[in-house]
Specification:
299 residues, mainly alpha, two-stranded parallel sheet, 10 helices, extended
C-alpha cells in the first residue's frame, strides 16, 4: 500500500522570545486519510451510486461537489493541525515570559515534557525550547508519588507499589515471628501496606491490567497468611471502597465534578455516563456513577 507524507510547517508568533519553526510529519494512507469526514464519505458513496446507475450528467455534478468537499476537508484538517501545534508552543512562551517578568528563573535541566499519545508510532512533536535550551521528552514521570506514562498505563506504578509493599512485608513477618497478637499485626498491615495500595487508587486502579491486579492480590493473600486474618480486603474491594468514599465526598461538597453526576427526573436514579472508549469507561467518574446507579437499584 502506498503511503504519503504530508509535512505541515507552522511559524510561531513572536511574543518576546526567539521565533522558531515547528514541523510535524503526518503519514497518510490512501484508503483512509485523516482529513476524510463523514460528509465527504457520503458524497463518495453518492458518486459510486451514480456510476453504477450510468447517469453521466448527475455524475459530473457529483464530481464537482466532491472536489469542493475534498478541498474544504483538507482546509479544516490543516487548520486543526496548525491550532494544535501552535497552541503548545505559545503556552510555553507565555509561561516563560511570565517567569521573566516576575524575576523567576526556570531550571530547564529539571523540566520534563510528557506527551500523552496512544498511537503505536508514538508522538512526532518537536521538542519545545525554553531560552534556546531543549526540554527533555520522557515516557514516564513520577508526580506526587504516582508514576504516569505517555500511554496512561500503570504497570510501572504497580511495580513501584510492589517494591514498597514487599519491603514492609519483611517487617510484617518479623512481627509474626515474635508471636505478636494478630490484631496488632493486622493493624500494622493496614497502617503500612494497605495505605500504599489505597494511595491514589481511584486514579490508577480502574485501568490496571488483570496481570498487575493479580500480582497485587497475591501479596494480599500472603499478608492474610502471615496475619492469620482472612478479612483483609483484596485490591478490587479496596478500589470499590475508595471509589464510593471519594464520590460521596464529591457530592457532599462544592466540587468541580459534582455537576457531572446527573439524575433521572422521573426516578432520581444516577444516569450512567456514556463512554466511547474502554479506557474512559474504567476511569474514576464513569465507574463511580455506575456504582451509585447499582446501589440505587439494590435499594
Amino acid at each position: 500500500m502506498t503511503s504519503y507524507a504530508e509535512v505541515t510547517t507552522i511559524l510561531k508568533v513572536n511574543r518576546g522570545t526567539d521565533s522558531r519553526v515547528e514541523t510535524r510529519e503526518v503519514t497518510l494512507y490512501p484508503n483512509n486519510k485523516p482529513w476524510v469526514t463523514s460528509e465527504l464519505k457520503a458524497v463518495i458513496n453518492e458518486k459510486k451510486a451514480c456510476f453504477r446507475d450510468g447517469d453521466r450528467d448527475k455524475l459530473k455534478d457529483v464530481n464537482r461537489k466532491l472536489n469542493g468537499e475534498i478541498q474544504k476537508a483538507k482546509d479544516r484538517y490543516r487548520d486543526k493541525i496548525e491550532t494544535r501545534t501552535t497552541h503548545r508552543t505559545l503556552e510555553v512562551s507565555t509561561f516563560t515570559n511570565w517567569c521573566n517578568q516576575n524575576n523567576l528563573q526556570l531550571n530547564v535541566s529539571k523540566t520534563k515534557e510528557l506527551v500523552v499519545d496512544y498511537r503505536r508510532s508514538g508522538n512526532q512533536l518537536q521538542r519545545i525550547e525554553i531560552g534556546n535550551e531543549p526540554v527533555e521528552q520522557v515516557h514516564s514521570y513520577k508526580y506526587l508519588g504516582v508514576t504516569i506514562t505517555d500511554k496512561l498505563e500503570w504497570s510501572e506504578h504497580v511495580k513501584t507499589v510492589l517494591t514498597k509493599t514487599n519491603q514492609r512485608m519483611f517487617l510484617l513477618r518479623k512481627l509474626n515471628s515474635f508471636k505478636l497478637d494478630t490484631t496488632l499485626i493486622s493493624l500494622f498491615y493496614k497502617a503500612t501496606i494497605e495505605t500504599i495500595f489505597t494511595f491514589c487508587l481511584v486514579a490508577w486502579g480502574g485501568n490496571t491490567t488483570v496481570r498487575d491486579m493479580a500480582k497485587l492480590n497475591r501479596l494480599v493473600r500472603k499478608a492474610r497468611r502471615v496475619c492469620q486474618c482472612q478479612d483483609l480486603k483484596s485490591v478490587e474491594e479496596l478500589l470499590a471502597w475508595t471509589t464510593k468514599r471519594k464520590v460521596q465526598s464529591i457530592l457532599s461538597h462544592v466540587h468541580p465534578l459534582s455537576h457531572r453526576v446527573e439524575y433521572s427526573s422521573r426516578t432520581g436514579r444516577p444516569i450512567v455516563i456514556r463512554c466511547r472508549t474502554e479506557r474512559y469507561r474504567r476511569s474514576f467518574l464513569p465507574r463511580a456513577v455506575l456504582s451509585l446507579a447499582n446501589e440505587y437499584c439494590r435499594k
